[in-house]
Amino acid sequence: xxxxxxxxxxFSCSSIMTINSEDLxxxxxxxxxxxxxxxxxxxxxxxxxxxxxxxxxxxxIQLYAILEAVADRIQVHNNVCEQxxxxxxxxxxxxxxxxxxxxxxxxxxxAAATNEVGAPLLALKLSSALLFSAATGLLLIxxxxxxxxxVEEQRNATRLFKQLQTQIQTTIALGNATEKDVKGAMEKxxxxxxxxxxxxxxxxxxxxxxxxxPAVWWPSTQFQKKNEGxxxxxxxxxxxxxxxELEMEMWDVVEVVKRKDIKDYDRLGNIAMKVNKSLAIxxxxxxxxxxxxxxxxxxxxxFSALVTLMAGSMAAAINTFEHGGQVxxxxxxxxxxxGFFNKVEASIESTLEENDLEKRENGELFEMKMALQLGRSVxxxxxxxxxxxxxxxxxxxxxxxxxxxx
Length: 406
Fold this sequence. Notes:
Pfam families: Chloroplast_duf (PF14476). The protein has 10 helices and no strands. It is mainly alpha-helical. The radius of gyration is 36 Å and the shape is elongated. The chain has one domain.
């Protein structure tokens, strides 16, 4: 009997253990779910407190709205850039094909001038004249809008809007945004819209200005002078990362930027502007001469045919050099680079002219930013300032540019 009762007892114990194990697992799962829900609730509450602080929520929302507008501007400028790049290739190839076809027809007409059949000769002369006239009209349109220069404008706008996008994202991430940041971001967006307009009619940038002017894409209020003249040199303890030595270093950097970089890019910009103007006049002039001389081909003289062929060939070469070589893009590149150096100069001067060191950007951070913008390390920037100081004491001109990027 004992042997019969033992298995029964063991079976009852195992059943109880199985039931208790299942209940225990279910209870543990319910506990884990409760803990997870509690943790999620706490996390959401903390996130809400961080992102939706009563004093910062409206400012953050405004910055996000500006950020959306900036992202849209980036996409629009990028699309327009691709469109105008296609314009340049299409117009360049079309004008060259029209010009070369007209040249071929003039050559055929000159060769057929010895025959006494007048109708084919007249047809060739009229056709070539029409083709040269069409090439002249298209060249005038292309030289007026300068597609390669338009493409470079949109490239610069896209890059600068991306830079602004990053700045706004950084401001939001730091979590210390103010109404001043919102106003500054709005002003920068509007300044970029003005500096790099999208429409062609009415607001297009002047492609052949009388004087070379660097690009300006920052608000007029960004670098307003806070004090008249330079900050007075004074002995001071290091404060907010600034020291007397760092101030002198920045003034020396400004001096190099003015004397070397800005001056050099003004010179290059003026050269590119004059070359662009000359080519824009020469191309249509050559096709116009060719169109006029077509009417005299085959009148017993080979001179008119020779002039037509030479003018047409020169027009094709000039058009290829101007628009295939993208002289307008080079001019815009110099204009934008000169603007960059003006911005560096204005940034340093406006910072140094603020006598209250606490209102300035941290000195060490500002020095690092200037070094990076000029393609240098902090040590190289200090070396440049030291070299500028030595040249000034010796009465010689420094032979080094501030920037290593451009």
